[in-house]
Amino acid sequence: MNEAVYAVVGIPFLSAILLALSPSYRLTALGNVLASGLTFAAGLSFLALPPVTETYVILDDLNKFFIILNTLVGFTTSLFSRSYIRHEIETGHLTPLFVRFYHAMFQGMMGAMNLALLANNIGLMWVGLEFATLMTVIMVGIYRTPAALEAAWKYFILGIVGISLAFFGTILVYLAGQSVLGEGEAAMTWSELLKIAPQLDAPLLNIAFIFLLVGYGTKVGLAPLHAWLPDAHAEGPTPISAVLSGLLLNVALFALLRFKMLIAANPHALEPGPILITMGLVSLIFAAFMLYQRQDIKRLFAYSSIEHMGLITFAFGLGGPLLNFAALLHMVMHSLTKSAIFFAVGHVTQAKGTQELSAIRGLSVSNPVLSVALAAGVIAISGLPPFGAFMSEFLILTSTFAREPLLALAVAFGLLVALGALLMRLQDILFGEPTTPNHPVSAASAPIFVHLSLILIAGLFLPPAVVVWFKRAAETLG
């Protein structure tokens, strides 16, 4: 077990050091792919490992799920990033000097996220998320334009404020655990805290959860804590947009879920469910309406990420085995679909030389392969069959109708509003007279169609072994 854990965390960090020392962009791009592939292979090996709990490391069905998703999307993004960044250098949008450390920071970010997912120590989990935040801040501002630097600065300020609030909440949880477990590591070990959760001081846990919710909720991108997310997506390189939407939001929500389990296990503490339901529903409906006003294609899909993270948070807030199962399934579908969309969008914007929606028309004529990929991604993320998001959204809606019909109507309303906006935008992008320019793009199509194939297969058939695994992970959440 230790070897696999060390590999998932150690390969990215060691690779980051080696890549930072290399002066050749082409060599670091290849090294980034190789390191990401090895990390994904190590993540897959977790499927054969039993649950393990140690002082600093925990491995259960829940974080196995997140690690495998994390390493898969990290690997495919590294493949996409290789061709994307090469094009940016060839066209003069980036200089080799500015991207010298890009791949090293990518590996550092992946290692930090994996560390946060595997940490049994709540302080170590916070460190992982903090380090990942710092890495993504630097990469968001890599273009060095005024807009990119402003987006990076906004992300830094809001991200640091959020993570600082989460740090204070973590300290409060430690203080609550200290009164029962005593001073030292035990009071910061999540598995130990969960065992004695009913004995913890409820008022202290209540205050801690508010700080944790605001802190980690900022990283999740929940409204009204989302202000950094559209700017970071729009101004940063597209591979980072894919990772932010497909991975980092999930890792932040994972941290929040760990603390939700702790609070929910104390019968005298507040119920976290209604708070998560409210924030999730507000985020879903708010983002659905904001989709109609976007004029930038990357901002459009950034708000789509807020919408889906709201839906997932809502489902986890309502809770129960079936809704937890549906929320986990939707996390996978959203991560795979949204990263595929950003892969396609990255090449579309390179071909058209702009991110403005008004200047992207007639894609089905000028770039037929990219238009098929983008259309499939938008249809999938809209929750239409036969893709996997249809199944997860259907489960969330039907399960909510069975328990809270009025809430289900609100969710259905938000999803329909978002569906209308995305299909309207897709129609404008695909059809009509093709806009110019239409630069040649050496697109890495494989990552796009691998993701789309996976979500199509998931929509048609989920293997029984996968269903059992997801059920076990859902039961872990309570």
Could you explain the architecture of this structure?
The protein has 478 residues and is mainly alpha-helical. The protein has 19 helices and 2 strands. Strand 1 and strand 2 form a beta hairpin. Helix 3 packs antiparallel against helix 18 and helix 5 runs antiparallel to helix 6. The radius of gyration is 21 Å and the shape is globular. The chain starts with a helix and ends with a helix. The mean pLDDT is 91.
Write the layout of secondary structure elements.
Layout: H1 2-20, H2 25-44, E1 52-53, E2 58-59, H3 61-90, H4 102-118, H5 122-140, H6 146-181, H7 190-195, H8 202-220, H9 228-235, H10 238-264, H11 272-290, H12 297-318, H13 321-352, H14 363-366, H15 368-381, H16 388-403, H17 405-430, H18 445-460, H19 464-476
Antiparallel strand pairs: 1-2
Helix pairs in contact: 1-2, 1-4, 2-3, 2-4, 3-4, 3-10, 3-13, 3-18, 3-19, 4-5, 5-6, 5-10, 6-8, 6-9, 8-10, 9-12, 10-12, 10-13, 11-12, 11-17, 12-13, 13-15, 13-16, 13-18, 13-19, 15-17, 15-18, 16-17, 16-18
